[in-house]
Write a structure and sequence with these properties.
This protein has about 300 residues and is an alpha/beta fold. The protein is about 40% helix and about 20% strand. Strand 7, helix 7 (about 205-210) and strand 8 (about 220) form a beta-alpha-beta unit. The chain is globular and about 75 Å long.
């Protein structure tokens, strides 16, 4: 008599890998769009069918067993096969239509995508259903959390492909009304308004740490909050020089140490980059970003 093992359904693989990677049934549930009790129950049922424990339940959360470590390799192969199957299925699309999920930071969405890309997209490709997801933490494109990303770092992990589409030099900007009072101050005396996100470094944070000391007039975790504070005359922010073209009430402070540039990359999965709807969105975004490029 043969025994049918439980890990034969894609759903089981999905639940197992989510719990394994997040090391938390609660976080896995959030990722899967369900509740913690469902994940816990599904894992318990799977362990019973497999006849071995996948996780040790500890006060700090589930800890993968040696059996789970061995199972993970095959589970990830199944996951990759399912992704390839999904990506291959969309190649039958004849014209740019259907959903496209684009991930980026809030500032890029507000000041670039909405005013410059969305009107053209609606005009040229009315059947494309664009969803914009914003956040400072990068979504996992390989895991299909999004289809396309506009981000400040190159990412070619696994099946991802990306290219630089713009280079934005940084400048120290402040409200025009505040500038006369700051021009004689040294870089360490300036009231810096900084965006700081734990575990996420940026060229701005590196430059400030090297040149401006540790004192900050304001710390926040959102670039729109930083911009609003700058425009209120509360201090100086290290932002793309192009920002002065968007807000005439901001000016650049001269005489400061040389500053780096932000590089913007357009990233997607190799398997879908030629699918009409994804290709159309990427081409439009790249064309508009090219107008901001200051590489030369």
């Amino acid at each position: 008599m043969t025994t049918s093992l439980g890990l034969t359904r894609w759903d089981d693989v999905r639940f197992f890998l989510a719990a394994y990677r997040t090391k938390s049934f609660t976080k896995a549930a959030k990722q899967l769009g369900t509740d913690q009790s469902t994940v816990s129950r599904r894992m318990a049922a799977l362990e019973e069918e497999l006849g071995a424990a996948l996780f040790e339940r500890t006060p700090r959360g589930p800890v993968a067993t040696e059996f789970a470590e061995r199972l993970r390799v095959n589970a990830e192969q199944v996951e990759q096969a399912m992704r390839s199957l999904t990506d291959s299925a969309v190649h039958g699309e004849a014209a740019p239509r259907g959903p496209v999920r684009l991930a980026t930071v809030e500032a890029v969405a507000i000041h670039f995508l909405v005013p410059r890309v969305l009107p053209l997209l609606a005009e040229r490709y009315p059947e494309i259903e664009l969803e914009i997801v914003t956040g400072l933490r990068a979504l996992d494109l390989a895991n299909q959390d999004a289809d396309i990303a506009v981000r400040f770092f190159r990412s070619t992990r696994g099946d991802l492909v990306g290219r630089r589409v713009a280079r934005l030099p940084l400048a120290a900007l402040c409200a025009r009304s505040l500038a006369p009072r700051l021009r004689r101050k040294s870089v360490t005396e300036l009231p810096w308004i900084a965006v700081e996100v734990p575990e996420l470094g940026s060229p701005q944070e590196s430059w400030l740490a090297e040149h401006a000391g540790t004192r900050r007039a304001l710390r926040c975790n959102n670039y729109e909050v930083q911009l609003a504070a700058m425009r209120q005359g509360l201090g100086v922010g290290l932002v793309p020089r192009e920002t002065v073209k968007l807000f005439k009430d901001l000016v650049a402070l001269p005489g400061l140490p040389a500053m780096p540039a932000l590089e913007l990359f357009l990233v997607t999965r190799r398997a879908i980059r030629e699918v009409p709807r994804f290709a159309a969105v990427m081409k439009l975004v790249a064309e508009q970003l090219a107008e901001l490029d200051q590489a030369g």
